[in-house]
Design a protein that fits this description.
Largest sheet: 5 strands, mixed
Low-confidence stretches: 1-6
Radius of gyration: 17 Å
Number of helices: 4
Mean pLDDT: 82
Length: 164
Amino acid sequence: MAQRKLESSITPVEMQNKATVEELYKALLGEGAMEEVVPNLVATDLEWWFHGPPQCQHMMRVLTGETPHNKAFRFESRTVTAIGDCCVIAEGWEGQAYWVHVWTLKHGLITQFREYFNTWLVVRDLRSSTWKDRNTIKHQNVTLWQSQPRDLYRRSLPGLLLAI
């Protein structure tokens, strides 16, 4: 799949949101103090969604302090992509587990987190075009992002469509 857009066309808000999420992953890998990083990056009323086996709810256990980050599942992101001014998607794999995280940010603060384990994810823009646009352009459901697990062709994963 072609990249959504060139790196040079990323807005300042997208760059800041991506940097915020990358800072959180660095802290998870021990490159920062989680107890200092999480309160500065994550809203206290974080909305959380999960799709996958119940025993794979690793990130929420770390964010709530139930599991120390240095003894938890290792979230080493392989890609981090900003989608618009409020969404950042990260993906990675650890052993046989493939994961995708979708982070929603408002004013630089993470307000929503969606965690998908061993799930093929496609993110599409389903907003309808404006009335003026309908006269000149046919409405298109644009794929903004899709999973790229390294061993997809050797495994069968359930698929989900995330509409934004």
